[in-house]
Design brief:
The chain is mainly alpha-helical and 140 residues long. Helix content is 59%, strand content 7%.
């Protein structure tokens, strides 16, 4: 076949790319978890797409003041159980973010499923730093 080498290269490149994505996610799982829980949720009170989380109710704000916790933004870190339960796993085509608390589904329903998504900017920086150089080396 006239294009056999090109077909083999494309198939091998595809496998290498998917494996590379999975490896970058798994190698950086703790950084991705920290981005979601610390930077997006706690520091900014935002979802992965930059939208502010719904404000706390007045009764919750009073509790937050009493506990000396931030009340100017929703952090989802009252007991830290939710934040500590967030885990990231790399798959060949994507990353999977889960949280294992009895109230995770309630939080997702109330605030958005985007609370468990890292920002596009963070992922772009991560893949630019870790994945793109490896792909360039493969292309040589």
């Amino acid at each position: 076949m006239i294009f056999q080498r090109q077909i083999e290269f494309i198939q091998s490149f595809e496998e290498t790319l998917f494996k590379g994505i999975q490896d970058v996610v798994n190698d950086n799982a703790s950084a991705i978890e920290e981005q979601i829980t610390e930077v997006q949720l706690f520091d900014k009170g935002e979802t992965g797409d930059g939208k502010k989380l719904q404000s706390y109710a007045l009764s919750t704000i009073k509790q937050k003041i009493r506990k000396r916790q931030p009340f100017d933004r929703t952090t989802l870190r009252d007991t830290e159980k939710f934040h500590k339960s967030v885990t990231v796993t790399g798959n060949p085509l994507d990353l999977e973010v889960t949280a294992d608390t009895p109230y995770t589904q309630f939080l997702i329903k109330r605030y958005s499923d985007r609370i468990l998504v890292p920002s596009a900017e963070f992922l772009r920086d991560l893949f630019s730093k870790d994945l793109i150089p490896n792909i360039k080396n493969l292309m040589r």
